[in-house]
Design a protein that fits this description.
The protein has 2 helices and no strands. The protein is mainly alpha-helical. The chain has one domain. It is globular and about 40 Å long. The N and C termini lie far apart (32 Å). The model has no long low-confidence stretch (mean pLDDT 82). Pfam families: DUF772 (PF05598). It comes from Prosthecobacter fusiformis.
Length: 75
Amino acid sequence: MSYLQGDDRSQAWMLPQSLEDYLSEDNPVRFIDAFVDELDFRQAKLPVEAAATGRPGYAPGDLLKLYLYGYLNRV
């Protein structure tokens, strides 16, 4: 069983053309996204395999991105 997948950020919408258009080039979200995408969760011995039963969970990388964004914005 795989993890839940979000929408494709390059998918064209009515206005603006994509979700990337909402963020400036120097927005910290871009750094968080690039940083977490380069991490190897298997090497860190974190559970990265989805369970075979039940509802699919969220991808660990997506949850880490959300956690880091919230931490940086004091949420």
